[in-house]
Design goal:
The complex is a heterodimer of chains A (about 110) and B (about 110). With about 110 residues, chain A is an all-beta fold. Chain A has strands at about 5, 10-15, 20-25, 30-40, 40-50, 55, 65-70, 75-80, 85-95, 105, 110. Helices cover about 0% and strands about 55% of the residues of chain A. By secondary structure, chain B is mostly beta strands. Chain B has strands at about 5, 10-15, 20-25, 30-35, 45-50, 55-60, 60-65, 70-75, 85-95, 100-105, 110-114.
């Protein structure tokens, strides 16, 4: 079956703009997690959604938000972009929240100029 | 903040040799997982070991877990050039009741030279 799909794969934005990233989980997976990966901070947990509800949230400012739709697809939004938001944003899905392995997409690489 | 910390940060070996990576963590866990990431790609799950398990094998991978020392190790035997990647440990810990998150370390960059 198809894996986790993230779009777009690459994007360039300027400071102050906003961006929306999309994630389609593996069919049957109801949990979607988002991570930010940078060389300096490594993989940082952003949030996890399950059945359209945010189950947990990492230590990121309110500029970072997300949502999950009834078909389990998820989007994350970053408003008022800063240079430090440049990163690889990874989405991962699994069948249930709170347990089991994560299946990752290839990521969306965001560059903020 | 990072829950797991891998050691070493980088490891370079020759093809055919074994590679050992270590992970230390701070709080009690439900399970610990190891992932692999090829440069700039998504992570791939390798193995999960539960807190009541001490050792687990999967192909050329062997993982140990010592909950008393809050540490785990990943051994890759008979390494191949294709094993070149970053390896991450991830700790599964329940935080505050049902709140849960999988927390990753900063990884070990393994280079296997042909």
């Amino acid at each position: 079956k198809a894996g986790v799909t993230q779009t777009p794969r690459y994007l360039i934005k300027t400071r102050g703009q906003q961006v929306t990233l999309s994630c389609s989980p593996i069919s049957g997976h109801r949990s979607v997690s988002w991570y930010q990966q940078t060389p300096g901070q490594g993989l940082q947990f952003l949030f996890e959604y399950f059945s359209e509800t945010q189950r947990n949230k990492g230590n990121f400012p309110g500029r970072f938000s997300g949502r999950q739709f009834s078909n389990s697809r998820s989007e994350m939004n970053v408003s008022t972009l800063e240079l430090g938001d440049s990163a690889l944003y990874l989405c991962a899905s699994r069948r249930q929240a709170n347990t089991g392995e994560l299946f990752f997409g290839e990521g969306s690489r965001l560059t903020v100029l | 903040s990072q829950q797991g910390e891998e050691d070493p940060q980088a490891l370079s070996i020759q093809e055919g040799e074994n590679a050992t990576m270590n992970c230390s963590y701070k709080t009690s866990i439900n399970n610990l997982q190891w992932y692999r990431q090829n440069s700039g790609r998504g992570l791939v799950h390798l193995i999960l070991i539960r807190s009541n398990e001490r050792e687990k094998h999967s192909g050329r991978l062997r993982v140990t877990l010592d909950t008393s020392k809050k540490s785990s190790s990943l051994l890759i035997t008979a390494s191949r050039a294709a094993d070149t990647a970053s390896y991450f440990c991830a700790t599964d810990a329940t935080s505050g009741g049902s709140n849960y998150k999988l927390t990753f370390g900063k990884g070990t960059l393994l280079t296997v030279n042909p």
